[in-house]
Amino acid sequence: MRMLEQDTAHWAGLGFLLDTYGMDLSDTISRYLQPASSSATSSTSEHRSWALITGASDGIGVSFAHELASEGFNNILHGRSPTKLATVETALKAQYPHISTRLFVLDAYPCSVPAIDDYVRGLAKDGLCIRVLVNNIGGGALVSPTFQPLAQRTAEEVQKLFDLNVGFPTLLTRALLPVMQEPSLVLNLGSFVSHIPGPWMTVYAGSKAFNMSWSRSLWIELRAGGKDVEVMGLVVGEVQSGGHPGPVGLVMCSSRTLARSALDKVGCGRHTVAPWWRHAAILAAVLCLPEALLNWSMVRTTRGMMEEEKRLLEVDKRNL
Ligand SMILES: NC(=O)c1ccc[n+]([C@@H]2O[C@H](COP(=O)([O-])OP(=O)(O)OC[C@H]3O[C@@H](n4cnc5c(N)ncnc54)[C@H](OP(=O)(O)O)[C@@H]3O)[C@@H](O)[C@H]2O)c1
């Protein structure tokens, strides 16, 4: 049994190396940059392909918006802060004057099904050619403290982590899929923690594992139904962002690098990809370790982070 577990781990590691080096890149993101079938001759920018990016007011979401705009996609920028979204929109318009933008302002917590459905109905009514959805919103640090034993979490914190990481992306995708025009693309942001779940972040780790399993299941389902929709789960390591500041280096890339690497993997034929090559290599190596060693190391590193976070929260409290 132990041998089998170890073999499985090795294969998982090899899978991630294949994701980086062994993929067929004959299709690219430009496949999704087509005018609406009903307006193939129209040259107005409104009729070009649209991408909807959730959590587009900061971090990786902003970078996806820029990278997609640089490819020629119109952008629907989702977020909860109209001011932050307007700043992103102004920067996009200055850099890519040929694209159109719209803002989708909605707090994803608590997740409101009528609000999501209403907004999507409006998009359908306007006849936008939506071909790309980036389910970027999420994170573990959207509740404070980030690291906490499950039994000490409030029910509200648990619900918030579910809503932001699972509920909102699932319900938005459910509403948007019938409105999107084929061929279309859905990208779901995951995390290393879906493959290496550590302690004191159980809800976040579980949610991110859901994101990956859900991506695969959805892609199979849509293909079985004859739909031309590509669904890809992105396994993300450390990325510099609004919610995760830190210096870019050996293991941490910039949000732009992550978004560009992800778009470069579109069409590779895999449902789960670690977009940045160094993240892929790290994950491949880590997944080859014996599980007991991995667990021991996760306890050590996460405990360190939890204690540091506790110390910083105490300092904040004293300074109030
Ligand atoms: N950065 C990393 O190291 C890392 C690692 C692994 C996985 N990921 C994944 O990558 C994705 C993006 O992470 P990030 O680091 O770029 O995050 P971030 O910098 O914290 O940005 C999160 C985005 O989500 C929005 N948001 C948060 N709560 C919201 C709410 N209640 N309603 C509507 N919008 C809300 C934020 O809006 P505001 O601007 O209003 O706050 C912001 O636009 C997440 O799914 C995360 O799990 C990130």
UniProtKB/TrEMBL annotation:
It comes from the Eukaryota. It holds the Pfam family adh_short. This is NAD(P)-binding protein. SUPFAM superfamilies: NAD(P)-binding Rossmann-fold domains. Belongs to the short-chain dehydrogenases/reductases (SDR) family. Keywords: Oxidoreductase. The keyword Oxidoreductase applies. GO terms for molecular function: oxidoreductase activity. InterPro entries: NAD(P)-bd_dom_sf, SDR_fam, VLCFA-Steroid_DH. It comes from Mycena albidolilacea. One of its GO terms (cellular component) is endoplasmic reticulum.
